[in-house]
Design brief:
about 110 residues, mainly alpha, 2 domains, 3 helices, MED9_metazoa, Mediator of RNA polymerase II transcription subunit 9, activator, transcription regulation
Length: about 110
């Protein structure tokens, strides 16, 4: 299973939460300013909800999400074994190739 990058992932939730808390903590004497801050906080809450909904949708699309933890662990183990086998084969082919090159060079030297 190939690693896939999640596109369009705006998961900066902390800054939005911070903005909400900051706007709620403001102590304003002016009623107009209080109303404005309240509206801004409401907009930030809606923005946070939108980001959370988007994050849920992105998580649902992740490959392997339908597998249980045990199935995922088995798949990781299988993939690690395949990786080890492929690395071993690559090392084997590299050593064979260098041996063939050396033999071919020696053969050419002896012919001249």
């Amino acid at each position: 299973m190939a690693t896939q990058l999640v596109e369009g992932g705006d998961f900066d939730l902390l800054s939005t939460i911070y903005d909400i808390i900051k706007s709620v903590e403001k102590e304003q004497q002016d009623n107009a300013q209080k109303q404005k801050d309240s509206q801004e906080a409401g907009q930030k809450v809606l923005e946070l909800q939108r980001k959370l909904d988007h994050a849920r949708e992105v998580v649902k699309k992740l490959p392997g999400i339908e597998l249980s933890k045990d199935e995922q662990l088995l798949q990781i183990d299988l993939l690690r074994r395949q990786l080890t086998l492929k690395r071993d084969l690559l090392n084997k082919y590299r050593s064979i190739t260098s041996f063939d090159r050396e033999a071919q060079s020696e053969f050419q030297i002896h012919q001249h």
